[in-house]
Design brief:
The protein is of the alpha+beta class and about 575 residues long. The chain contains 21 helices and 17 strands.
Length: about 575
């Protein structure tokens, strides 16, 4: 795990050393354990390292056959198995990231095909250069085309620090963020900075992106014809195998635990696989309507024999830390779960470098209520995904059209699915998952030099879960039927068929208490005023005193964007609290 950066010049000149140094400095939080650089005519590769596997010999860049060079951000979980395919090779390290150099020597541009893990990779071999991202998009990778060539990094803010790209916000992306809580597709909110899409390999020649191909995250095979007992046996094998490889580490690891189905399933596997108690970190929201949810999680953790740590997320911490959280989210996602995720990472990062997390379970096993909606006909309340934006009905946006849906609608055009549920799952895996949930996880954890691993997002799990027929995903009005059934057998104390305890963050309650003061501050911000009517924004805040959660979340969307724009577009210092950031001259 680390941050990577580099440049591939248009004319074969040596990339400017100052630009590479600026990117490394900007990503110091991603790799506090050291850094390395490779420079040659036409190419520079750099890495800031967070040492997880092979602490002694795993420094990068790494060098392979025929002069190939690589920097990688992430983990290749099947490196132990892959080494067996290269019998007789005298590997220079004991680590996981050396393997792609040898799969490249064997397979050329499709060298990522056999990699099982999360990664962003920059690879140079003779006249060939490649940028690669893992199929689910767990690890980020961005690039920008400039007059001097292509510059790339693990975070957009690092690219901006080079001075080679103008810091300019796309208003259409700001609208999308306010309505969706994330931005879609290849283009970021910064004009000129582009995402490498999940699963994509991009060949770069003379500083220009060329041929691309994609390794799909989801299997394309037929629906599985299994009995329930057969499906449960296969699920048990897949989960245990995935958690086992996701625990491969030379440093201590723990678990972010919410008490929900997904993290409880991971806890159940970890409890079986580890001799020592699993170290869990759980968020609690004291003095709010959500204060009791942590008690359920702590009780379950203790039932599994875990060493559970409670992290309190208070209103005071919310107002104090939110600017720092917004600063971490340089590619913005306004999912309110960024608040506890950041604070959990802050606490866990004091003790360890790796945590396992439950992201991906809802997408693969059919957990969201919106999936049940897409299966219903319109006359029974069914509707397409994300048909309504967070600010719809409040008359605050200058562009009141449905243009914000173009990106998410494009994500809906996925390869043929066997049913409407699979189509919805594929759409979420293409955009919502990498550009919201996984983005949140990467930035909030890496801000504290902490690696997050997602055992649910594994090809072994996906090959089973995505291909399950609807009856094993949704039954009797509940999603994730098979996962619940497995958990019922494996850890009965979890009561997986009891009414769901959602991981809900009380941002609306915190905002309601300060809405009157926030009203003029948020409304007059430069970024908000560019895409919203200030007077309408002020009315929205002044009219909110609690109770109406949807209105409260609309206020949250505007507050987050106001802070994000102040920090990332206007350059305001994020070291103070929310009000200091909004009031700064």
């Amino acid at each position: 795990m680390c941050g990577i950066a580099g440049m591939m010049t248009a004319n074969g000149a040596l990339p400017p050393a100052a630009a590479i140094a600026a990117m490394l400095d900007a990503m110091a939080h991603r790799g506090p354990d050291g850094h390395g650089r490779y420079e040659a005519p036409g190419i520079a590769l750099a890495q800031a390292r967070l040492a997880i596997i092979d602490l002694a010999t795993g420094d990068q860049p790494l060098f392979g056959p025929s002069g190939s060079v690589l920097v990688a951000n992430g983990e290749i979980y099947n490196y132990v198995e892959l080494r067996k395919d290269f019998a007789g090779v005298n590997f220079a390290t004991q680590g996981d990231c050396e393997l792609p150099l040898y799969t490249y020597a064997r397979d050329g541009a499709r060298f990522a095909h056999d990699l099982r893990g999360m990664y962003g990779i920059g690879l140079h071999a003779g006249d060939a250069n490649y940028l690669v991202r893992d199929p689910f998009g767990i690890k980020p990778l961005y690039y920008a085309e400039t007059a001097q060539g292509l510059v790339f990094a693990s975070e957009p803010q690092a690219i901006l620090k080079t001075g080679l790209v103008e810091r300019r916000i796309r208003d259409e992306a700001a609208n999308e963020l306010l309505q969706l809580q994330f931005t879609t597709g290849r283009a970021t909110i910064f004009a000129g900075i582009t995402r490498v899409l999940p699963g994509e390999t991009i060949a770069v020649a003379n500083g220009v992106p060329g041929a691309r191909h994609v390794e799909p995250a989801l299997p394309d095979g037929p629906l599985l014809d299994l009995s329930e007992d057969e499906a449960l046996a296969r699920l048990n094998a897949a989960l245990m195998n995935s958690v086992m490889v996701h625990q491969r580490s030379d440093v201590p690891y723990g678990l972010f635990y919410s008490g929900g189905i997904d993290s409880t399933a991971i806890l159940a596997c970890m409890a079986k696989l580890n001799d020592r108690p699993v170290r869990c970190f759980t968020a609690r929201f004291p003095e709010t309507s959500k204060s009791g949810e942590a008690g359920h999680a702590l009780a379950l953790a203790k039932a599994a024999g875990a060493d559970a740590r409670e992290v309190t997320v208070t209103a005071e911490k919310f107002w104090t830390r939110l600017p720092a959280i917004a600063r971490a989210m340089d590619d913005p996602a306004s999912d309110y779960a960024i608040v506890p995720t950041y604070m959990l990472a802050e606490e866990a990062g004091r003790e360890m470098k790796v945590v396992l997390c439950g992201e991906g379970g809802d997408e693969l096993f059919g957990g969201y209520g919106r999936y049940r909606s897409v299966l219903r006909p319109a006359w029974l309340g069914g509707r397409k995904l994300r048909s309504r934006g967070f600010l719809d009905g409040y008359d605050v946006l200058r562009d009141a059209s449905a243009a914000w849906r173009r990106g998410i609608a494009a994500a809906g055009h996925q390869p043929a699915a066997h049913d409407r549920l699979q189509a919805a799952q594929a759409q979420d895996c293409a955009d919502w998952l990498p550009h919201d949930l996984l983005l949140k996880l990467d930035r909030c954890l890496m801000a504290h030099s902490l690696e997050g691993r997602t055992p649910m997002l594994d090809p072994v799990v996906a090959d089973l879960a995505y291909r399950l027929p609807v009856k094993f995903k949704i039954r009797r009005g509940l999603g994730k039927y098979l996962l619940r059934k497995w958990l019922e057998r494996t850890m009965p104390a979890a009561r997986p068929f009891a009414p769901k305890r959602g991981f809900t963050v009380p941002v609306d309650e915190w905002i309601a208490a300060r809405a009157e003061k926030l009203a003029p501050l948020v409304a007059r911000q430069e970024g908000v005023a560019a895409v919203c009517y200030p007077e309408a924004v002020e009315r929205l805040f002044r009219s909110y005193s609690g109770g109406d959660r949807r209105r409260g979340i609309a206020c949250w969307q505007l507050l987050f964007y106001a802070l994000w724009h102040r920090i990332h577009a206007e350059g305001v210092d994020a070291s103070g609290d929310v009000f200091a950031c909004l009031e700064a001259a």
